[in-house]
Design brief:
three-stranded antiparallel β-sheet, alpha/beta, 11 helices, eight-stranded parallel β-sheet, 2 domains, single chain, TIM Barrel, Enolase-like, domain 1
């Protein structure tokens, strides 16, 4: 049977709302790509992200523009030169991995030459809010071992103090989503270190992170918006000690695994992250998360509904995906 490609937009509702420094949402719009061949079906999901100029429409058009090549039988390596790093390539790349696993009867981790994956413990995200709101959210999540706090600048020290007071035993990492200035970083670094914060993610706008060169911060800095694929690495040296690998930025699992290997070789520590999306989007990232210092794949925990079957969570521990979901 010839190979066929199907695109399906899906909107996932969020439990309440999700707020970061740049916006607030009550649902997330994704694209599910399905590739069928010889009676087998592979799937991948991407989250078009406005920060990178993506919409459901623009990402769908990117994929449609290479439909002929995809249905003509291209593989993952050829895909790297057909589509740029980003959401469109991610959905297609992950669908091709899943399809190959279904056609071969071998799991993706074997196809990729990786060790068999085990469970990973993810951070649980505390959405940006008032001091009182974030303190209460932390109290409700205080049984979780690792909390990630969305921050915005002024008032963040009071927010982190409230979280620490209400979740005294949880490990803490924070994410400014490019909202801080150097003054914020100089103020918050030492204060957050005293509160036990273990990592600061993307404190400055990506186009201003040259200011981080030579900065003396007592807490490791992690690049997110500044790090997309392997081509990003050289620009991060001397600014960050960690990178956040997200499949929607790398353009799929193929490039994500290459980025992880090159980053490790260059001395960076690894965070495996995600855009807010469903279990289908998280499943390939579980492979990237193996051995990562920080895992942030809690997207399904923040949604009001999910794929069926979905990833299995035991608290905030994620079990490797079942083949019926992906891989």
């Amino acid at each position: 049977m010839p190979r066929t490609l199907t695109l399906r937009p899906v909107s996932w509702p969020i439990r309440g709302k999700f707020t970061i420094s740049r916006d607030s949402v009550t649902s997330v719009d994704v694209i599910v790509v399905t590739i069928e061949e010889n009676g087998r079906r592979g799937q991948g999901e991407c989250r078009p992200y406005g920060r990178y100029g993506e919409t459901v429409g623009s990402v769908s058009r990117q994929i449609e523009n290479v439909r002929r090549e995809i249905e003509g039988g291209i593989g993952r390596q050829e895909l790297l030169s057909l589509l740029p790093a980003g959401a469109a390539r991610n959905a297609v790349d992950c669908a091709l991995w899943d399809l190959e696993a279904k056609l071969s009867g071998r799991p993706v981790w074997q196809l990729a030459g990786l060790p068999e994956p085990g469970p990973v413990t993810t951070a649980y995200t505390i959405s940006l809010g008032s001091v009182e709101e974030m303190g209460e959210m932390a109290r409700q999540a205080s049984y979780r071992p690792l909390l990630k706090l969305k921050l915005t600048g002024d008032g963040d020290l009071e927010r982190v103090r409230a979280v620490r007071s209400n979740a005294p035993d949880s490990r803490l990492v924070v994410d400014a989503n490019e909202a801080w200035t150097m003054s914020h970083l100089r103020e918050f670094g030492p204060a957050f270190a005293e509160l036990g914060v273990e990592m600061i993610e993307q404190p400055l706008p990506a186009d201003k992170d040259q200011d981080l060169i030579g900065i003396d911060c007592p807490i490791p800095l992690c690049a997110d918006e500044s790090c997309h694929d392997t081509a990003s690495l050289d620009q991060l040296r001397g600014k960050y000690s960690m990178i956040n690998i997200k499949l929607d930025k790398t353009g799929g699992l193929t490039e994500a695994l290459a980025l992880r290997d090159q980053a490790r070789a260059a001395g960076f520590r690894i965070m495996a992250g995600c855009m807010l999306a469903s279990s289908l989007a998280m499943a390939p990232a579980v492979l990237v998360a193996q051995g990562a210092e920080v895992v942030d794949l809690d997207g399904p925990l923040l949604l009001a509904r999910d794929h069926d079957p979905a990833l299995r969570f035991e608290g905030t521990t994620i079990l490797p995906p079942e083949p019926a979901l992906w891989g």
